[in-house]
Amino acid sequence: MSASHTLDISAPRVRWATRCGFFLAGFGLSVWAPLIPYVRERIPMSDATFGLLLLCVGAGSLSCMPLSGMLAARLGIRLASLGSLALLICALAIMALTDSIAWLGVALFAFGGTLGVLDILLNIQSLKVERALQRPLMSQFHGMFSLGTIAGAACLTALLTLGLSPALSTLLLVGLILVTTLAIRSGLLPDRAPAGGVMFARPTGVVLVVGLLCFVVYLAEGAILDWSAIYLTQETGMAMSLAGLGYASFAALVAIARLAGGPVVARLGTVRVVVIGSVLAATGLLLSLLASHWIVALIGYALCGLGCANISPVLISSLNHQKDMPVHLAVTAATTVGFAGVLAGPALMGFVAHHSSLTIAFAMVAALLLGMLFSTTRLPR
């Protein structure tokens, strides 16, 4: 008998734990960004060395994410999630305290790996909750991740501004993550999937389609994160001190659209959300490229965020309705393929920009977003 019978999936504490889990994942992720200048100051290294260290985050994610389905099957979502959060706490503490490049690399690898695994485990739990309640909740759950990223960066920045040391500031937030983890542990599902021993299954059929569509959305997000500030300063004359507003406008609309998007998603359904979202996102990117003033470009990035916001949540939700693979393996495979877009986006943009221009690079991303329209017929209804 499945262990899930010991916990009512429709219970409010399960939804609360799922929301808080996504929030903690976003919170933990965003703590790293404000720490970067202090880490660079504490550990002398070249830009090239630091660039290699940053690759450890992506390497950790891509190495560990394929194990998520197996962990969910063998340990259950609860134990696997608690283990991931424990490792995330250790990684953040090491990143804040170490003076060793080697230990920093290990911590960054664990940081990326635990966040990748946690993301998949929480998506698996979310699908179970949606199935039990027969309600589309994935957008709201992913909205909590977006809210967590804003809160984490804001909290650490506030503590540093008050004069606390980077180490103490990080340890305080690590303590908050630990307390919240203990508070939500009973709401994490103890389920062990029946198809236990498979480590990773190659995505096929609709699962591959979902993964590739997620790849495009994540690629667009990575492109805006890493290149919007450069584009705004080079092409629209925006002051360097304001250049972060490009990604901020994108991220803010993503968070708002996800948190408020439940009724809209329920009314439109998966295919129409993907169609409308991809058109909006591509239109927003093209508007930013045609803008002669940076304010119009910011509106374009915000429109792109509005379009992208609910595409990946509804795509993950659609895996509940496919028959090609067990759901926990389908989520693992599709999310791993999709996450590769986060890593490929900046590199692809740089390659295209080097051989042509940044405008052409962003135009290619817009074209990929529009290309998603031709794959929607394969999606589960």
From TrEMBL:
This protein's GO CC annotations: membrane
Presence of the UniProt keyword Transmembrane helix in the record: yes
Protein location: Membrane
Domain Major facilitator superfamily (MFS) profile: 206-381
Keyword annotations from UniProtKB, A to Z: Membrane, Transmembrane, Transmembrane helix
Membrane topology: Multi-pass membrane protein
UniProt cross-references to SUPFAM superfamilies, sorted A to Z: MFS general substrate transporter (SSF103473)
Listed Pfam families: MFS_1 (PF07690)
UniProt cross-references to InterPro entries, sorted A to Z: MFS, MFS_dom, MFS_trans_sf, MFS_Transporter
Transmembrane segments: 20-39, 51-72, 79-97, 103-122, 143-162, 168-188, 200-220, 240-261, 273-292, 298-317, 329-352, 358-376
Presence of the UniProt keyword Membrane in the record: yes
GO molecular function: transmembrane transporter activity
Domain of life: Bacteria
Name of protein: MFS transporter
Organism in which the protein naturally occurs: Pseudomonas flexibilis
